[in-house]
Structures are given as C-alpha cells and as structure tokens.
# Entry
Amino acid sequence: MGNKPAKMTSFEACRKKMEDEGIAPSAISAFESAFTALASGDSGMIPESTITPVPELDKAAEFDVTPDASLLSKTVMLKLNGGLGTGMGLDKAKSLLKVKGEDTFLDLTAKQVMAMRKEHGFNVKFMLMNSFSTSEDTLAFLQEKYPSLGYEAGLEMLQNKVPKIDEKTLLPATDKKNSANEWCPPGHGDLYAALVASGSLDALLKDGYKYMFVSNSDNLGASLDMEILTYFAQKEAPFMMECCERTANDKKGGHLALRNKDKQLILRESAMCADEDEDAFQDITKHKFFNTNNLWIRLDKLKQVIDRNGGFIPLPMIKNKKTVDPKDDKSQKVIQLETAMGAAIECFDGATAIVVPRTRFAPVKKCNDLLLLRSDAYLLVDNKPVLNPACGGTAPVMALDSKLYKLVGALEAATAGGIPSLVNCKKLTVKGPVRMSNKTKFVGEVKVSNTGSVAKYVPAGEVTGEVDITDSVGMGPLEPTTVQTKIYEGQKPGTSGLRKKVKEFTKPHYLNNFVQSAFDSVKATGTDFSSGSLVVGGDGRYYNPEAIQTIIKMGVANGVKRFWIGQDGLLSTPAVSAIIRERGPKWQKAFGAFILTASHNPGGPDEDFGIKYNCELGQPAPASLTDAIYAGTTTIKTYKICESFPTIDVSKPGLTTVVAADGSDEISVEVISSTDTHIALLKSIFDFDQIKALLDRPDFTMVYDTMHGVNGPYAKKVLVEELGQSEDVCMNAIPKDDFNGGHADPNLTYAKELVKKMGLDRKGMKIDVGGAPIPDFGAAADGDGDRNMILGKQFFVSPSDSLAVIAANANDIPFFRSQGGLKGVARSMPTSGAVDLVAKDMNFSLFETPTGWKYFGNLMDSKEVYGGSDFTPFICGEESFGTGSDHVREKDGLWAVLAWLQILAVKNLDPSKPLVTVEDIVTAHWAKYGRNYYSRYDFEGMDKPKCNAMMDKMRADVEKNTGRTVGKYTIAKSDDFEYVDPVDGSVAKKQGIRFLMEDGSRVIFRLSGTAGSGATVRMYIEQYEPEKTDAVAADALAELIRVALDLCDIQGFLGTEEPTVIT
# Structure
C-alpha cells in the first residue's frame, strides 16, 4: 500500500480551490498574505495607541499650478466597476443604474472621457476593473451605446474572486445548493493583483503610460482633473490619495493616520478599529481626513513595489463575518477576507495625500444619495453632477425611512410618478410608506409621515413643515397588494415559453409567480413600463380569459400604464409581433407583450396552457431574458397585484380608463381589433389584386383550415372580406377554447379533415375520394396561427420544400421585389437542405441555426440592432411547419399561405392558359434543384428520463460512430450540433445529435421542449437525389429510416418504433 496523502493545511485547500478555478498566481499570493494574517490570529485591528493624527495636507483648491495637457498621453483613467450594488437591492452592475434622467453612472463616465479626448486632442486611456458579475452587462452596454470605447483594446481587466472561509475550520466554505456562493470579491485592494494577472501593468508601462487615476464608478465627481494630475507629476510622489475633511456624517468612515513606528501614512477602516477605540475613531477633530478612494499612482513605482514583494502588494487584511448564502442567515458562518486599495499608501515610501473639495466625492451608497442626485438639487455640468446654485451651497439632508427605502426598487416605486423638487428643501424626513411625484415641491425642513401600512400620496404643490398623510385617501382600484407566495419547481421557459397542463397553471399563485418574474426580469433590462403599451392576447384556449385579467391586474401593480388587449382576448402570435412593430402612435408604442398560447398543443381543461413574453421589436424573449425569468421563479417570495382593479370587458373594442381614488394616477386599457394591424401589414407585402384574380378563376378552388384556432378571424378577414371569397373557403374558422376537441397542429396526422378533403392519407399518399371535388389549394394553421401546412390537389408540400420554393420565387412577392430582391435565407438545423441549393444558386446569404425563431430574429436585426451586416429582406423556416420573413419577428402561418397564393397568381397571370398547380411548381423546382427526400418521425408522450438516457448514449458515442458503416451508409461525422451566433456571439450547445453520411444523407435526433407533458423524440431523415425525384418519400427513405431506428435503439430505450406522427 502506498503512503496516504498528507492532510492539506487550510491554505493549501484554498490554494487548490483557486488554482482549479484558474485564479492567477498574483491573486493567490495576495489572498495567502491576508489568510496568513487571519490564521496567525491577527485581528486586523489598528489600535489607537499605534497611530498619530495626520497634520495639515495641501489643498487642491489652493494649488498654484499650470495644467499640463501633455501629461494626458501618459495617463490612464481606471474606474472600479466590480460592484453589483446588492446593498441597494441591485443584481447587475451598479454603474448601470440610472442616476440623472436616462443617464447611468456609466453613461456619464463615458461622456466625460470622450469630452476630454475631444477637448485635449489626446486619446485618453480609459479602463474598467470589472468583476465576474459585472463584465458581461458592462461591456454589452458600452459596445452598444459607446462603441468607440466599448471595443477598445485593453478596456477591461477582471477583478479576481477568492474563497469564503469557514469560520470554524478556516477551510474553504461550501454551498451544495449554489456553488457560486462559495466565492466572494476580494475588495478593491485586488486592483494591484488584477493589474499584474491581466498583464495590464506591463502592457501600460510598455506603451509609455506613467500615471494612473483610480476611482469608484459610482463617484461621478471623480473626474480626471488636470490640475491635480499636474500637481501629482510635479511632486514626483509614487502614490497620492485624495482626501476630504471629515464631517459628522463621515465619522463612521475610514480615516488617514500616521503610523507611530515609522511615520508612514496609513489608512484605518472601521473594521480595523477595536470597540474601545471607537470614540477616538469617530473624533473628527482628531482624525480630520477620510479617503475618497480617488487615488493617483505612479505605474513604474507600483511595479517596483510589486516586484520587491514577490509579485503582489501585502495589504492589511479586513475581516468580515457573513453567511455562505447571503440570503440565508442560517447557512454556514463564513469569513470574507478583503483588502482596500487605499491601504497601499503604507507600501510606498514618499506616499502623500491632498485635500480635495467635496465635489470630488459624490458617491451613491444609499437611496438617500440616489434621490438627491436624481432631483433638481443637482445639475449636470460637463457630465458631472454639480450642486444647484439655488441650494445656497448646502445640499439638502435626506432622511428616508431606512427600513422601507433601503432598496432601489422601493425608491423607484415611491417615485414612479416622478422625482419631487428638492432645490428649495433643507431637510426631508420620510417615515412610513409614501408615493411622491414631480408635481410636489418640498420647501424648507419637511417631515412626511404615514403610520399606516399602505403607501399614501404626498400632496402636489408646495409642501413644507410636518405633514401627516396617514388618513389621506388611497389609490382605490390602483392600490397594489403584495402577496406572499410559494415556489413552484420547473417554471423554465422553452424556446416558445412556458407550457404546462391547465391544472398546473391554475394552482394558487402558479401563473402569478411566472408573470411577476417576467415583470422583474424585463424591468431589469431597463424597460420603462410607464411609457408605451403592453400587449396581451392569445390563441383563445382554455384559461386565456382568466389569465388576461390576472396579467392586467399584475401589470398595473408593476407600473404598466397602458394595455392593448386583443378583442375577445384573441391575438395570433405573428399578429402580436406586428402590433408591437407597427401600431402607433409612437408615444404609445408597445414595449412588449404576453402571448397566451401553447401553440399546436391540445387545449381544454385537461390539456395544455402556455405563456411567453415578446420584446420591443416583436421578437421572442432571448435566452438571457428567459433564463432571468426562470431564475426569478426559483427565488420568488412575493408578487404584486391590484386586486381591486375592475375586470375588463374584452368582447368589444374600446378604451377603459381607471383613475386612482386620490387622483395620483390613471391606467388605460384599450381593447383593439385582433386583426387590423396584421392584415394591413400583409396587404403591404402582397398584391391582393393579383391574388383575387387567381381566386376568382373558375378552374381554381381552395380551402383554409384554421382548426378552431386563433387564425379563424384572420382567415375570414383576408379571404372573405378583403378577397371576396365565400365563407366556405374557411374551414373550422370559429376559435374554441378546446379546438373543438381536436389537436390544432397543421400536419398530415392531425389536420385529418383537410387532408382527407385534399385526397391524401396521413402519410401523404393519394386516396380514392369517390368522385368528390378536390380543391386545387389547401392550407392549415395551428392554434396560435404561426404555423402552416401547404397542400395541392392530392399533393403534400413538405415544410422544407415549401421554404425552398418560396425562396426561389421570392421576386413574385412585391415585398421582396421592391427592395431589390431577397438577400438572406435561414433554416433550422433539422430542416432539409433544399433551401441551401436555392441559396447557392441565387447567391443568398445562408444560415443554419438551432430550432427556435429567436435565432432568425437576430439575423434579421443584425444591422438595425447590432450594427452588423444587413441580411434583409430575409426568409426563414423550420421543418416543423414554420415559415416567415422579416416583416415580423415570428413565424407567420397566414403569410406563408399568401406567399403561396402570390406565387400561384404570378404563374397564372394569363387566365386563358391551363392552371399551373401547386404540384407543377414543386415538380419544376425538383427538376431544377433535385429533391431532398425528407421525413420526420415524432414519438410523443415518451418517458423523459428514458429519452434523456437515449440521447446521452448517442452523445457519448459521437466519436465512436464517426467513420462507422451502417448498412450502405458510412457516417462521415457524428456530433452534437453547436451554434455560435454570428450576430451576438452567443453559443447554443446540445442542439441535436447529427449523423452526417458521406453521400450527404442526414439522420438527426432532438428532444422537443414544447410539450406540456412527457417528452417528444423527433427523428429526422433526409436523402438528396439530384435526378430521381418522382419516388414516394417513404420508399426512398426506407433503408435510411431503418438505419436511424437502429442508431438510436429507440426500441431498447422506449419500447417502440412506431411514431405518433409522421411528416
């Protein structure tokens, strides 16, 4: 037996954890220094007996220097941007908080930097020290709004992270529920380790930079001051701290001192002060100066200090006692070790400090600060907040109720009506829940109190003295209530939202939890609910009416001021996208929508319900938003709702205005036509006169089966009212909440009535109809109107062929022809490569994406939103009967039907010639491009764990299967499809197991995430034939289907080889 490994010492365990996480050696060394101090029993305290007060310091206001602008070429401005502002209830970079109008901290900093560059003609170097929590949000913000900064090389360096330490064992803390809780930021003292670890220090020195100015991102007063920079350069000091003179408000903050033993300047933070020294610590007449965290550093001297100490700066340790889960006071007790960057002043021989005006220290640490900064008490001058001269040189004192207004969300709820005037206020004290507005002017010393639990409105006009609003009238029907809730597991939206059984959605609080999480997540993106409109509607399935009323009541409670509701609660999914994009006026334009649909899934009290959110361009919520919504559902404790808000009659169009009892607010709910906006858009895309001429031909008949889904009213509006056809062209056109007991899925299996009428069976084979007339054109729609099936007389058009035919004939459609022709096409990965052949022939940009319309939306918005290439006009499609273009950001079943009718109309412009049929168009297409024989097998309602096991087995065997021969096929490549979005760089993994054969054939397996119960295995089979195009698809694919069933061993895993649906 070998020797047992020695038990690791405490820091060895920390070292291993940090090395395994990829933490840089410089950060590990710095943390080891702090840890060693902790383990040795060092309390981190600085006794009063060991220090002396600092004598007078030079004052920046009295500098007699001539600013030297040439120094800017050697200077870098760095903002510490690692904080999330969790103490104020924020969960993203604090610098992205709006502080003045629409400007965030980061907006104003960026504007300061760009203004300085323009004024002095130097490309002043700008850097951020982000944390692992703030990097993504910050860079995305800068790259979108300030690309000249956002894409600069060397902009960012990342703050490190360090393990939380078990208070008893000094071993790394653990959290089995959330491993992210095991780590914490090391404090801003990590600046120096991060400069080394990122290579930034060496790079800056190599590029000739000598001076660095560092400040916190929430301190807008800390601009790069030319006089201070010049003073620092002339003093030739290695390190300089900006201090302010302490006042009573600063007595609990850290202060500057002289260490007795060597007369070195040091920084003593509150955590370094023992209880017995607290009186001396808070004596502002003794310790006069505090650190603003505005630091000036000579980079060459910093390099010397770091090298002298073995690659890091040994900063004093600060010990903070916490719990491993900050949201659970009962979780493991831990120590978080931090360091302060200002403490480095003791590491530099010759370090100095200066006194600066208070204008250079304006951080936002509490909601008191934020309200003051947002008010008229501060003005923006050169993108810096400056106290309004009308305040007489003294800022108003803010004393908001600390129990109620600790978090930004609470302050924003209290000021939803606008920010009150504070310019003439001396002191504002607020006790109890209140609501303020921009109609209020506080004057002199004001105390507003409310001893009740319900927020009351502060009167408009001038308010002074003591005002008790406890007995004031409340909001009445607009009064929000906070409801305690419980967490439901599994509320994770799929590619098309959250779908579950109705019985699940009707459980207490289930829908409320999801809707509240959606409101919270959308608001966190910066969406302003108080401007614009929220669209609500759905496919009419069971529980839609109740859900609509719930969403309205919760929307009011969450700050939505205007709603657009589809008449009868009905809105097709593409119509919602059209309304968001097209409906005005501009000041009412929709910011988003809730769509109540489970698409093609069955409806009824025992079947499925669904909900999804669409964003400001009409597009489905991106993964970042759906992930945030899901995360919200896993932690939600309460939701907001206005229980007394009246039920809205959605049966007829009209506007309902509901006013608060105290007159402080009003809500508009407008019931709008479900069809008008969408149909108007479609009329601008197609030539309705040409289509009508086709439909009026005596030798042409058609039928459109909307399967008792939402598209019935749209079909009647277009085909009957606009195109003058008889109502019998519309089958099953009355929406029903259970789809009349059917399955509103437009395929050969479920559209039974239409398929039979078109002379086909469930496999697309011709049947004997006994002499009954067969329409020349048939189409079907699903429950929410975004899918389509196209049929000719006894002829089935596969979705993949439909996409290819529309792309090849796009110039027959005015929308494309008038814009110079189609530019780009895209298909989901499982969709056949038929459209690829068209794209290659016609030189279109071609994209293969994962399943999910949001991927197509990114490509459509590449130029408009992301500043990239323009791929529009654009057509895209999925094998699951979804087709559309860039007119909306959803697939559009009615658009696909009209596209085919438009193509047929152009091919039949001469009524004297024989009718060119659907079959004629498709067979001509095959003759030119060859045929992609294609089929999809759906195995519905399967056991999910067994499905996952089957997929995992194929995933594990991808390398072993590559090169393998199966039947007459050789697998050239087996993989799990991964997609890197060419527009936003996001990565989608595990999108389907692919078997790509040497002859170009494909077999693909996916699990569908859209079913309400069980799992659906989808098996896709494709074989290309350049010349042999007249075979029956089932016959052409028979051998490959057998190979596919053997590759997945579905019989072994799921006990069947019989699909529920064959397409």
